[in-house]
Amino acid sequence: MVSIFIRTAVIYLLLAITLKIMGKRQIGELEVGELVSTLLISEIVSIPIDTPDIPLLNAIIPLFFILAIEIITSYVKNKSKRLKRAIEGNASFIIYNGELRQKELLQNRISINEILTEMRTQGIGDIKDVKYCILESGGKLSFFEKESKPLSLPVITDGEFEEENAAALGISKEWIYKKLKCDGKEISDVFLMTADESHGHHIIYKEENI
Questions:
Q1: Rounded CA gap, 135 and 170, in Å?
Q2: For the segment 175-191, what is each residue's pLDDT rounded down to a tens digit?
Q3: CATH value at residue 140
């Protein structure tokens, strides 16, 4: 009995450390890879607790292996836009400028009732008041009402031009070049640049020695 308590305490501490390294997220905010890792970890760590005859290393080694995969994948996908899109997917407009895109609903297997339900939970009573509805890459629906502030989207992230977002805002690459030229910068120097429908923008340049 004592060994079970000791094994449980060891597994608990290792699991707490592992999840802390992976980062704080609510279950609904987990990306696909993170959710898979979390499910695998919960299954692996339960085995040596339920079966005292199994060595603790049978849980510890896979635990740190999954952690290593998660850290490596997170690093690589942040360096590769294609890999990031393949793993996380892209955000997409379900409602754009007040127009419901039924094709997007079909492609993403979302019913209109899901849209209406989520809309009400966010305090919006009528779909005609929605100017934009965005299905985020993590699966969450974001709503912007017609009377709200202008929609702002990233047009440059970590030195890479976000062509789809720029096109949605009616912003060209040449326009971005002109804004950066004022500061003597290039797209590769930008950590984050956001812009809105009225072409207001905000730029955060990369810090040196990072």
A1: 20
A2: 999 999 988 999 999 99
A3: 3.30.240.20
